[in-house]
Amino acid sequence: MYEAFLQFPTDFIWGVATAAYQIEGAWNEDGRGPSIWDTFSQSSSNIADNQPGNVAVDHYHRYQEDIELMRFLGIHNYRMSLSWSRIFPEGRGRVEQRGLDFYNRLVDSLLSANIKPWITLYHWDLPQALQDRGGWTNRDTVAAFAEYVDQVTRSLGDRVKHWMTFNEPWVASICGNLLGVHAPGLKDIQTTLAVAHGMLLGHGMGSRIVKTNVRDSMVGIVNNLAWIEPATNTEADRAAAHRWDGAYNRWFMDSIYKGSYPEDMLKWFGPLVPEIRQDDMKLISTPTDFLGLNYYTRRLVHYDPKNPFIQASQTYRSHTPRAEFEEFEDWPEGLYHTLCRIRDEYGNPPVYITENGTTTLDEISDDGCVHDPVRVDYLRRHFSAAYQAITEGCQCKGFFVWSLLDNYEWAFGFSKRFGLVFVDYTDNLHRIPKDSAYFFRQVIRKNGFRIHSR
Ligand code: IFM
């Protein structure tokens, strides 16, 4: 039996993450305008159990209680997002002061609890008014985003120093515009690529505005990168895995870190590639301070001629008892490999793991507690993978667990629980810290944890 204490670097950041639409609720209060997620989640049959996110977990009204929970858990860094349509109900133009006031109160309360806010500017909830004019396929949306970023950085930038432009642009573009399972629910390859390009332009533009408006700021984008492997060693599966990597990982990494889309994928998509204007790639590859990495899974990929996008699909491994979410294979080695890849292929930028976590079948036990040993084990093994990468020279600077609370898991509604804190949907959204929350409190306190292995 081997035992060791994994001591993280003294400046390592530990935190938790959430997103506005998944927790806030108050969808039509204080002048908030509709977003594409209101429209999508309110149309029947898009969401598990037909549950819209109107109330979510009511953080808009309970934010003080949620901050108190973070303080109790010893959390000093909180990644959250802003609801754009709370501030610009029509997407641009008129500012809704009550929306800004809410975020000002939230930021002040966080700071007085000694918790640093890390703000994501776009976590998927585009104002519906902008979608009605073409959404991210329309360059006016990029201009509207610039207006919004300018406004919020001027309002909050004296206190908020850490900013992220976009969360997971591939999910927002592909799930929303190709697979139709996220808002706005479209199914079109050309639109998908145009949306991705629009978001990447927004990223470049937004990060420049943050740097101009916020003194001592740190800005980055959040990409979710998966570790990709061919399902078999056939040439067809290897090529399919390479295309998957091209469309989901390299499309969003090469453009930002190398200033060009991957050649092989440009050729593959051919006439479907949107117009790329002269300075677009320069804007997209504007240097930033860090990369946010959301890591959840490895993907085993096989050749699939029926998939019109990249003729590749994911092979699901037979279920282990831990994998409650079919798409997410529990594979911490992939986190380690991904960090090494960022080091080796993308110039070793500072990386914050901005999301990692798992969904499990949690319930309140007879003793009134929520025991989630699978999540504790999952986190322990992913923290260890990050630790190993750090010892091998990767600049991994922090780790945010997804998520603080059980919340609205998009198309899955409330059926998936990712929180460190349980939310009782049958009892007035009552919050109960799970065992994993207490485990995480100890990790933060000691800046490390003990491992036992054979
Ligand atoms: O809940 C989501 C989050 O909004 C983005 N990253 C993945 C999480 C879990 O699916």
What does this molecule look like?
- By secondary structure, this protein is an alpha/beta fold.
- It has a single domain, classed as TIM Barrel (Alpha-Beta Barrel).
- The chain is built from 15 helices and 15 strands.
- It has helices spanning 20-23, 36-42, 59-72, 84-87, 97-112, 128-131, 139-156, 169-177, 189-213, 235-257, 263-269, 280-284, 332-345, 373-391, 435-446; strands at residues 2-7, 13-17, 77-81, 116-122, 162-167, 218-224, 227-230, 290-294, 298-303, 312-315, 351-355, 396-402, 421-424, 430-433, 448-453.
- The strands form 4 sheets. It has an 8-stranded parallel beta barrel with strand order 2-3-4-5-6-8-11-12, surrounded by 5 helices. Strands 7-9-10 form a 3-stranded mixed β-sheet. Strands 1-15 form a two-stranded antiparallel ribbon.
- A hairpin with an 8-residue loop joins strand 9 and strand 10.
- The longest helix has 25 residues, at 189-213.
- It starts with a strand and ends with a strand.
- The protein binds 5-hydroxymethyl-3,4-dihydroxypiperidine.
- 5-hydroxymethyl-3,4-dihydroxypiperidine binds next to loops.
SSE string, helices as H and strands as E: EEHHHEHHEHHEHHEEHHHEEEHEHEEEHE
Instruction: Determine the strand fraction and express it as a percent band.
Output: 15-25%
Give a quick account of the main beta sheet: strands, pairing sense, barrel closure: 8 strands, parallel, barrel
Structural class: alpha/beta
Q: How are the strands of the largest sheet arranged? A: 2-3-4-5-6-8-11-12
What's the total helix number? 15
